[in-house]
Amino acid sequence: MSDEVPTARVSDLPADAPILDVRELDEWTAGHAPTARHLPMSELAGRMGDIPTDDPLYIVCRSGGRSARVVAYLTQQGFPAVNVAGGMQDWAATGRDVVTDDGSAPRIA
Questions:
Q1: Residue 3, pLDDT above cutoff 90
Q2: Annotation says 76 is catalytic
Q3: What's the pTM value of the predicted model, to 2 decimals?
């Protein structure tokens, strides 16, 4: 079996791409994509019913490592998941919006 997972670069994502952010709460709170939904990797197995059914569903973390593991798992479960290469670091570096829920200055943690 190949270790390759479906992957897309930030620059290739549509503006309205459905995004699932799998970082931990402190990382999410520091800054996230405006349209992203949050489901920490550590809670994934117990919250399978909360996974959006968008096709494709873009999975993001800080740099792409955790999201790649989540994509490998989700694709095995039949979800049309795609890893966001470079994660939120590349998201911010390409000039895409980063927001916070409390109005504080966003950052990638």
A1: no
A2: no
A3: 0.95
